[in-house]
Amino acid sequence: MNLDFLKMARNMQDELVKVRRDIHMHPELDYELYRTQGKIKDVLDKENIEYVESAGSGICAIIRGNGSKTIGLRADMDALPLQDMKKCDYASKEKGKMHACGHDAHTTILLGVAKILNRIKDQLNGNVKLFFEPAEETSGGAKVMIKEGVLESPHVDRVIGLHVEEGIDVGKIGVRYGVVNAASNPFNIKIKGIGAHGARPHTGIDPIVMGSYVVVALQEIISREIPPTDGALITVGSIHGGTAQNIIPTELTIAGIIRTMKTEHREYVKKRLREVTEGIVKSMRGSCEIEIEESYPCLYNDDTVIKNVVSSASKIIGDENIVDLKNPSMGVESFAYFSMNRPSAFYYLGSRNESRGITNPAHGNLFDIDEECLPIGVAIQCQAVYDFLK
Q1: Lesser CB count within 10 Å: N end or C end of the chain?
Q2: Phi, psi of 46 (to 5 degrees)
Q3: Is 56 helix (H, G, I), strand (E, B) or coil?
Q4: Beta partners for residue 185, in sequence order
Q5: How confident is the model at residue 321 (pLDDT cuts 50, 70, 90)?
Q6: 101 annotated as ligand-binding
Q7: Can you tell me the distance from the alpha carbon of 143 to that of 34, in angstroms, rounded to the nearest whole number?
Q8: Which regions of the chain does DSSP assign to beta strands (E)?
Q9: Which residues bind Mn(2+) (predicted)?
Q10: Taking residues 333-339, what's their average pLDDT?
Q11: Would you call 365 helix, strand, or coil by DSSP?
């Protein structure tokens, strides 16, 4: 039996728009997503879909079909600490909070998928798990959800995720094989010297001079030790030290982030950051403390899973509307935790519409989407699930 998932999704378009705008008007941050969680529960309860809470304000739901295979679908839920400056009826009502990255759309799409698949569950040769993830923009709720066991009972065989993309026209998707997003490691360096009068620098040990050498030397790790064909970055985002022009301070702090595209480069750059910093500071008679955080890993698309997604998507939008993305993103994405644990695929759902002025970048206070992307996202996800389980 052929199922027209796009027709099913378009039949609920008004409902999808209503849900998305409600979430958009009431953004919540980090793990404090209790209103959003409540809205999701209302839909799942109405559809008699079983679920459990996960990672505090997240949800793991399951639709049980007629087989042992299980596929997971993930949607992130959280907003950003940003003031919404759009002039529209559905602009954020929460001061300093905004869905500026499309997570409201992702949540809406997954709810639409849940309703359609639950209604045809007797035709599914397996199970579907629905992961509503909190804190994607901060520490990554996916990591917590996985630790709590969402990939087991039943065992999840593969996971698929999507993200709206303002650089791709609505009606198209963007896909990439291999690495899709970078890994990140935020770091903090505290350099300690000896304070002194600015007119008598020889009586002290200057942490500002040491820090200046460190900042320059860290860039040479990337330019001279990582192959130029491979993506890697060290960004120093802040330097703080000193109180006046004529005082050599006692200490200086440097904060930044490492971004890498390969696991081996990630470990290498972390090691070299320590070695270079400690070497410079020691040679200049100072001392230092270095903290490197373990943040999001690289997001890898499994070749087989992404090929399957492309095949399913072509049934919905046609081969001509599937865009091959040549370059990975240096941004990070917590879906990477799923991709490190199961064969996974992550793709970009076009949400741009120049004729309607919907071109503003994500993480900006004018961001919006063409809501025509909502039923397309629902249909592609449904088709991918159906094809895999079949």
Answers
A1: N
A2: -60, -35
A3: coil
A4: 258
A5: very high
A6: yes
A7: 19
A8: 50-54, 58-63, 70-76, 127-133, 158-169, 173-175, 178-181, 183-192, 196-197, 232-240, 247-248, 251-260, 287-292, 299-301, 322-324, 344-352
A9: 101, 103, 137, 163, 363
A10: 97
A11: coil
| Residue 382 is labelled as binding a ligand | no
- pLDDT of 1 reads 62
Residue 26 buriedness (CB in 10 A; 0-12 / 13-18 / 19+): middle
Q: Give 79-98 pLDDT, tens digit per residue.
A: 999 999 999 999 999 999 99
Q: Which domains does the chain have, with CATH numbers?
A: 5-181+298-389 (3.40.630.10), 183-292 (3.30.70.360)
Token pair 């690495």: residue: 179
Q: Is position 288 annotated in a ligand binding site?
A: no
Tell me the three state secondary structure of residue 15. helix
Q: Which two tokens stand for residue 5?
A: 């998932």
**Token digits for 191?**
């350099």
Q: Is the pLDDT of residue 287 over 90?
A: yes
Give residue-wise pLDDT tens across range 6-51: 999 999 999 999 999 999 999 999 999 999 999 999 999 999 999 9
Taking residues 277-300, what's their average pLDDT?
Answer: 97
pLDDT at 234: 98
Is the pTM for the entire model greater than 0.85?
Answer: yes
Confirm or deny that 103 is annotated as ligand binding. Answer: yes
Cα–Cα dist 60/131, whole Å: 5
133 labelled as ligand-binding?
no
Could you tell me the strand order of the sheet in which 58-63 lies? 50-54, 58-63, 127-133, 70-76, 158-169, 344-352, 173-175, 322-324
What is the phi/psi pair of residue 60, to 5°? -120, 115
Task: For strands 173-175 and 322-324, give the pairing.
Answer: parallel
The answer to whether 57 touches 34, Cβ cutoff 8 Å, is: yes
